Amino acid sequence: MANPDCAKIKAAEKKEYHYESILETYKRFSHTKEVPILIKEGIGKGINIPQSHGREHIHVKRWMEAINSVSEKEQLAFQYKAIISTASTVCNKPYIKNYFAGQDYSDESEFDSIEKITEEGLILFKSIFGFKSLTFTVQGGFWGDHILKILAKNGVLLASGQQASPDLKGLHTTINKIWVQNSACNQMYYRRNILFEPSYNQNLDWESKAMADIEIAFRWGKPAVFSTHRANYIGSIFEDNKEQSLQKLSNLLLRIKKNGKEYSL
Questions:
Q1: Burial, 250: exposed, middle or buried (Cβ in 10 Å; 0-12, 13-18, 19+)?
Q2: What count of other Cβ atoms lies within 10 Å of the Cβ of residue 203?
Q3: Are 189 and 159 in contact (CB under 8 A)?
Q4: What is the mean pLDDT of the chain?
Q5: CA separation, residue 226 to residues 197, 209, 249 (Å)
């Protein structure tokens, strides 16, 4: 729902964090000015229903540490208002922590700030779309049960079931929630179980892979919930990325429609 406001952060000499809503971000680029209109048009036609994915797709504390670190790539990225995360990459003096998971934490001292950011994201969602988000998917699957009360308070009925909780040693333990199991705050758990990310590897047969995963999901009486990111469908840098991914998506939708009668049984 928001992105770092790099201009304000720079003005504060990187000592204060500021964010702007996605509406402000869209306005700043000529090729995205119409996006908010198209999103609301899609909602009105029943094509899509947005869901909350957090306030911004970064861990604010870690990202601020990164842009204040000695990492040359992080400094260059900030200069061009980009977010890259040099963690786990081979580069000159990288910032080593992953900052893409906004609800991740090192210890319980971070709970208050994470809860505040999570709630602000849900409030921002309602102010932009005009309705509360009934579902919530955390970023990267890293989160703790402490945010469930914030989700419940703001009307979230379904919560992402895949969870990786950190321990005091800085490692993560994966906790897989069962489909339709209820949380301590009465949200129903769900999870993505179909991977469709053509931009990862355009040479892979993503349509057949997705169809096979759909068959498995339906065989076990579960819905098919896709993981497919915007990165697959943008072409401002590489036009072929967008065209190839959209063609693969079209092929997949046609195959799903063709098998619709069988699925309905």
A1: exposed
A2: 7
A3: yes
A4: 89
A5: 9, 12, 12
Give pLDDT tens digits for 211-262: 999 999 999 988 999 999 989 998 888 899 999 999 999 999 999 988 875 6
Overall size of the chain counted in residues: 265
pLDDT, tens digit, 9 for 90 and up, residues 25-75: 999 888 889 999 999 999 999 988 999 999 999 999 999 999 999 888 899
User: What residue ranges in 172-211 does DSSP mark as E strands?
Assistant: 172-176, 188-190, 194-195
Instruction: Count Cβ neighbours within 10 Å for each residue of 189-202 and write b for 16 or more, e otherwise.
Output: bbbbbbebbbbeee
> Which among 102, 142, 143 has a CA at the least distance from the CA of 120?
102
Report pTM.
0.87
The neighbour count for residue 87, using CB atoms within 10 Å, is: 15
Cβ atoms 50, 40 nearer than 8 A: no
| Amino acid at site 24 | E
How far apart, in whole angstroms, are the C-alpha atoms of residue 252 and residue 102? 31
Phi, psi of 206 (to 5 degrees): -70, -30
The two tokens of residue 3 are 């992105």
Phi, psi values for residue 166, rounded to 5°: -75, 150
The C-alpha atoms of residue 70 and residue 262 are separated, in whole angstroms, by 57
User: Nearest 5°: CA angle at 110, between 113 and 152?
Assistant: 60
CB 224 within 8 A of CB 259: no
Coil/strand/helix, residue 224: coil
Cα Rg of the chain, angstroms:
20
**SS3 category, 27:** helix
Question: Which residues, including other chains, have CB under 8 Å from residue 172's CB and lie 6 or more apart?
Answer: 142, 164, 165, 166
Give dist(CA 158, CA 160) in Å, integer.
Answer: 7
